[in-house]
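Trying the structure run again after the queue cleared.
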Amino acid sequence: MPRSFVHEARKRVGPKRKRIKPIIERLAAEHEDATIALTFASPLELLVSVMLSAQTTDVNVNRVTANLFRKYKRPEDYLAVTQEELERDVFATGFFRQKAKALRGTMQMLLDEFGGEVPRTLDELVRLPGVARKTANVVSSELGTPQGIVVDTHVRRLSQRLGLTKEEDPVKIERDLVKLVPREDWGRFPHLLIWHGRRVCIARAPRCEDCVINDLCPSSRV
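Done. Tokens:
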């Protein structure tokens, strides 16, 4: 896209700091049901679900955890079986060897250092085996203590299209977003972009004519 066009488009929609609040308000009204798609009933189930969600769909994870969570209820349960048995139980999520190993390592650390409970802070969560910043952000946010903004493929794409960041790296994108998005919205903001990305701002064919924020978007085609 020509630089002059991008410049004119950004000038047309206005500064990102003035746009961020109406963007959040309109998306919140449009996607009232925007929430995490994973099914869980406890902090431990949340952590396991997010760890298993790497490189697969939430629907697939929910299908696997429906049986998994009947069998494994405490950190000790994941350590009471062999690595091979746990691998079989998470096989359908893909990368089952790495995931089973990470789960067992995480459960051991939960018992050794956190009294068997899932920690709330980002610094503590990222110490767990197999838990990177994105996973830690999701867990802390869903447990009511967001300390950052989750950046997945939808958040990355929409943040760029909305002119909220020019970065490609998720950590740098998050850095830009936390400067713009009010802290009280850190938890819901990713869900709003994810659901809008799935329903309207689709990767290959964005439906700009149906978008409630097309007048706030420099990439709008209408």
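Residues 96-113 form the longest helix (18 residues). Worth checking whether this holds up in the mutant runs.
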